[in-house]
Predict the 3D structure of the following.
Amino acid sequence: VGVADQLDRIAARTGALTRGEVPGTAEDASSPGLRRQVVETHVIWFRVADDALTVVRGLHQSRDVRVWVG
């Protein structure tokens, strides 16, 4: 899978998150209110408040989220 394909899949999943089609998984142990959505080898880290979704960071799954997300 090429980089462009991976970016397309991440963009598509981010769109699905904003439309409420996928909920993500709560990661309160890492940071209160933090959620994640896995896209192959990468993870979209985000928060939902009221009607807004904020993408905090996208990381390779091997990265320690506690180092990169506060």
Remarks:
- The two ends are 31 Å apart (CA to CA).
- The chain has a mean pLDDT of 90.
